[in-house]
Design a protein that fits this description.
about 35% helix; alpha+beta; 3-stranded antiparallel sheet; 15 strands; 11 helices; single chain
Length: about 375
Amino acid sequence: LSVKVQRFELLSKAVRPMPDKWHGLTDTDTRFRQRYADLIVNDDARRAFRIRHEIIASFRRTLHGRGFIEVETPVLHVEAGGAHARPFVTHHNTLDMQLYLRIALELHLKRLIVGGMERVFEIGRIFRNEGISTRHNPEFTMIELYQAFADYSEMIEISERLITQAAIDATGTSVVTIHGPTEQIQVDLAQPWRRARMIDLVAEATGVEVHPSQPVEQLRALAIEHGISVSPRWGSGKIIEELFEHTAEHRLIAPTFVTGHPVEISPLARVDRHDPHLTERFELFVGARELANGYSELNDPVEQRARFVEEQAAKDAGDAERGSVDEDYLRALEYGLPPTGGLGIGMDRVAMLLAGVHSIKEVILFPTLRPEQF
């Protein structure tokens, strides 16, 4: 089309030429650094972020429809807790105190459950001082929700509902193409998702039955047999998790709830009512990627203190990702936390799944990159 101009007025200077009219931006580093230019010329980039927006809007609608209220909790924490991760550290000048950027939303949201806010959620930015990859960015978005008088089985049902409804709202269908490490499959998310215990998946992958009650030497030998470097600090539960990650996780392409995590790796989860060595916890894997983590919350302040002490001992022994003793959270528990189900979902990874992209940088407008040399 040609435009016959009768008058024009310059509104803004554009002194840099646009990217190629037909080919757009092809260099991925330039696309992520200059997202403004990428969005001008790249339909796929605009589509990915439209899908991301629709997912977040869908999650909010579904939860509001179930009686949840949205809240905001602090980004700056006195104690870095609620997950296993190395935190970013900062300093508050006026109070002359060290603070941490939050690594999870969990502990403040459960304080609200204690206070009588029985269904709460927050969609917030999380900060973890760790590696960058196609699945990891140092800052990312999570939703966490907590429901009083529920347990992990309700959280499994909510996970399925949230993600399936988001797929329909964002893409018009519940059928998605899932890209695994070596294959891709089409799955209808509206169908029931598989559930399997972590110890059973390890046994399936290795041919050897495992359980956290086994002597640590047996599990250490099995791990070494599968080429896993084992820290002398690890107990049986941690070694089982490593075995799962190395032998079974990459096989979980279709949506799978992995359940029954060992107590050692689940410091905030309630003990399984049928097996004292396991917890009522699950992780959701799709395309060999973890999308969600949920559990029946530990609400016994005495047991929670003992688990925090174990976490602190591991931290003091050199594990920077372990937690510490959060006295204020323990005080909240002492007022009484009702039986509660909790769930956390990585919004960026859900966006990756539904947009059909392979890198988390495709669904974060301004991902963390190495400094540019000008």
